[in-house]
TrEMBL record:
Compartment(s) where it occurs, according to its Swiss-Prot or TrEMBL record: Membrane
Biological process terms in GO annotation: intracellular zinc ion homeostasis
SUPFAM superfamilies listed in its UniProt record: Cation efflux protein transmembrane domain-like
Pfam families associated with the record: Cation_efflux
Superkingdom to which the source organism belongs: Bacteria
The protein, known as: Metal ion efflux pump, CDF family, putative
Annotated keywords: Ion transport, Membrane, Transmembrane, Transmembrane helix, Transport
GO annotations of cellular component type: membrane
Naturally occurring in which organism (per UniProt): Syntrophotalea carbinolica (strain DSM 2380 / NBRC 103641 / GraBd1)
Major location category of this protein: membrane
GO MF term set: zinc ion transmembrane transporter activity
Protein's membrane topology: Multi-pass membrane protein
Amino acid sequence: MHDINDPTTCNHAHNHEIHEHANESKTLRVVILTLATMLIEVAAGYLTGSMALLADGWHMGTHAFALGITWLAYILARRHAHSPVFSFGTGKFGILAGYTSALFLGVAALSMLYQSAQRLLFPVTIAFNEAIVVAILGLVVNAASIAIMHGHGHGHGHNHQHDHSFRAAYLHVIADALTSILAIAALLTGKYLGWAFLDPVMGMLGGVLILRWAWSLLKQTGHILLDGKAPEAIYGEIRTALESDNDSRVTDLRVWYLGSHDLAALASVDTGQALSPGDYRQRLEKIHGLHHITVEVHHRDLHTNCCKA
């Protein structure tokens, strides 16, 4: 396990995520692609009168913004990788980016719901042919963005599942594709079946989808930003390792996230053996993600030994 008093190993541990996210250029490409399509869809939505297309355009705009925040977070985390200002490293840059993008998503979703409700109450004429063409274009762009973000190889893909910032960006793109599909379905039914009311209904459905996703992301990232507890399974794994000699007893244990998957732990252990914090540190070496550990050892018949490891 790393010694937190060693600045070299500290920087390596603090910036574990940064070395995994060498995909800033790919994220930027998706941002530019999504933003360009957003401008086309919003303009076309206003010109054709399609609420579903307009909702899809603004939806893509919020995702372009969120993806931009993710890209900026990667840059800031890398630039401040060795800064002593951040005691536990820059792992929470990405978490803060995800939280911020979720706030903007929530606002955009409420706006979409309001505009869709207005359009449902006060219908307008829709230029279906033009709107369908632009919606299909949006879906093609969504598919291209998914291909760009997904094309990192098996190993990178596995790591991204544990990276809240990248996962948020990827889900943004997936949601874009789903909203584009809803828009196309609404426009096709409106054109061929005369169900024009489905256009604002699909806009409302997209708004609800975004709102639910934003709330989920807010809860997840907010928990990490406020140093919420790590999952109970990790607590059990650490406790089992520390008490593996059937004599030691963990009297206090705190575990929290420093980023998407890097963990910090603070443990107090009571023992009747002449064990040091380093001995307990070795027991935790196989637990994935632990990079900052403080162990306090209380000997029952020896003096109290407190040390950071």
